[in-house]
Amino acid sequence: MSGPVRPVVKRTARAILLEFDPADPHAPAALVLIRRVRPGSPHPYWITPGGGVEPTDETVVAALHREVDEELGGKVTDVVPAFVDTVAHSHHEDGTPAHPHGVKVQHFFACRLAGMDESRRHGPEVERPNGEYAIVKVPFTREGVTSVNVVPPSLRAYLAANIEGVRALLAPDLG
């Protein structure tokens, strides 16, 4: 049974951002995340850097680079599509209706952290924060990924099951 194709009302670009030890490329990488705490909520959650694709972004990958620059003051290399998550999205963040059957498509890219300067952070999360946005690093291991509440849950499950596979997406011989 199939239904009509649901309209995509929002797209996001998010980084599965790994930081490798240049002295030991076989050592576990660190996964760079943002610890979020919304006002009035005692429950933190962890998200990958990234955000909405804007009309001014030429591509989804361009949006990823812009978002990493804004949120981390960071630069990334070796950007490789890794995971897509589709969720219902009938209302925009401001509460206005989007479409009753709309969806948000989240594009997750495996990428390598080329550099980060937190003093360069800018954009709405920094200039008009709605709660806490703290940059954190966890070991890119099953234990590290599952030690925090990474959202969406589908990404947490994907990462926990694919540590080696995501690392392989960034291998020099991928092509």
TrEMBL record:
Top-level division of the source organism's lineage: Bacteria
Sequence ranges assigned to domain Nudix hydrolase in this UniProt record: 9-159
Keyword Hydrolase attached: yes
Pfam families, A to Z: NUDIX
Record keywords, A-Z: Hydrolase
UniProt similarity note: Belongs to the Nudix hydrolase family.
Protein name: Nudix hydrolase domain-containing protein
Organism of origin: Kitasatospora saccharophila
